[in-house]
Amino acid sequence: MILSMTGFASIQRELTGGTLSIELRSVNHRFLDLTLRTPEEIRPFEGGIRERVSAKLARGKVECRVNWNARAGGEAALQLNTELLQQLLAAAAVAKKIAPLASELQLGELLRWPGVLSAQVAAPESLGTACLEVLDEALLDFSASRGREGEKLKAHLLERVAGMQTIVNEVTPLIPQLAASYEARMKARFLDALGTMDDDRVRQEIVIFAQKIDIDEELSRLNAHFSEIRRILEKGGSVGKRLDFLMQELNREANTLGSKSVSAETSRASIELKVLIEQMREQIQNIE
């Protein structure tokens, strides 16, 4: 299956102590760039979350957002950070000596200080297990979402390959006629200039130039690249980088086709090929 780097999934589960939800979203990126957004209660499990996501995804800018809403009267209990509270009181005492006229810290202000009071889940291990289970479910949904987008991209690419194949098939039968016509024009110009074609060097120059404008090799390589693209798309997997490389090769052949062109037909074919290649390149940026 071809996987798009664009995807979304959101899973929510009701637990004994509250509601756990995980949301995954991604856009295209050259490598895997994972951003985790978790509440304090989930921080101890971030390592496991990263491992699960990295094992499933190869590329993309991925955001994983975990939310935990503790239920009132559930398993959560307030915990007092006595060490931090003592540090605040010591700092307040030092500040009082420096500014004796300043008002003292009130108890309510101390309790509202970030980190002094926190809600601790009674069974953090069970929350961690549940978090990874919900993450696995979200990753399945996320992969399915990316797979659906990937199939659309695959159809788009195959359609462009078919268009390029049609262009090459239309040009190929014309090559002998175009080459012969151009060679005849060259001979006529030499006759007008020299009045004779008996000079061996003149004939050799015409033959050499005819070889330089021969595009049979470029057309053969284009056909080979078309076949390889179809094979890669059918095989599936993480193919974005390989397809991007093939776009460079296709573009090189299309440019050479244009530079060797001696007719309006081949020039037009080169331009049409490059338009389709650019359309494919834009879509390939979204493939893992």
Automatic annotation (TrEMBL):
Family: Belongs to the YicC/YloC family.
Cofactor(s) needed by this chain: a divalent metal cation
Protein name from the UniProt record: Uncharacterized protein (TIGR00255 family)
Pfam entry (one): YicC-like_N
Domain Endoribonuclease YicC-like C-terminal: from-to ranges: 175-288
GO molecular function: hydrolase activity; RNA endonuclease activity
Top-rank taxon: Bacteria
